[in-house]
Amino acid sequence: MQATQHVLFERSEMKDRHLVRKKIREHIADKSKLPILIFPEGTCINNTSVMMFKKGSFEVGGTVHPVAIKYDPRFGDAFWNSTKYSMMTYVLHVITSWAIVCNVWYLPPMVKEEEEDAVHFANRVKAAIAARAGMSVLPWDGGLKRKKIKESFKEEQQKKYCQI
């Protein structure tokens, strides 16, 4: 990874976030470097939805070249349900699959608009990707599939439900 200019960081460490943002800005400014590949969801789910994008990659500026990727599970499913299968079982499923097929769509480049903040820009990109791949848009991040739901998130959803 060091030979290919990966930017490694610990998501929970605030100092690392600022350092990564700085490194990405420097990388974008250097026109001799290749574009950066970022997966802003941080994880994937069952190939039906696009989860919340982490805003950090949309705060640095530059042009975003969205790519929509959707797996076709007819010959083999690339999705790993870690609550159901161990890593070894998943690897066995993948290597014994007839094929892992995915559709890839390259969308038009997108740039953050003047009045737009990073969250709105991320949501606009996410919506374009979801629309192209025929997936639904989810307002939460992938951490919910592995972590306990925050009480504040539950309360917010309860308030929205009460308003209905």
Structure in words:
- With about 160 residues, the protein is an alpha+beta fold.
- The chain has one domain.
- It is about 35% helix and about 10% strand.
- It has four helices and six strands.
- The protein has a two-stranded parallel ribbon with strand order 1-6.
- The longest helix has 16 residues.
- The protein is globular, with a radius of gyration of 18 Å.
- The mean pLDDT is about 85.
Strand order of the largest sheet: 1-6
- Main pleated-sheet profile: 2 strands, parallel
Q: How many helices? A: 4
Looking at the structure, what is the overall shape? globular
N-C termini distance: 49 Å
Number of domains: 1
Helix content class? 25-40%
Q: What proportion of the residues form beta strands (DSSP E)?
A: 5-15%
Order of helices and strands: HEEEHEEHEH
Classification by helices and strands: alpha+beta
Radius of gyration: 18 Å
Low-confidence stretches: none
Average pLDDT confidence is: 84
Extended strand count: 6
GO cellular component, one term: endoplasmic reticulum membrane
Membrane topology: Multi-pass membrane protein
GO molecular function, one term: glycerol-3-phosphate O-acyltransferase activity
Subcellular location: Endoplasmic reticulum membrane
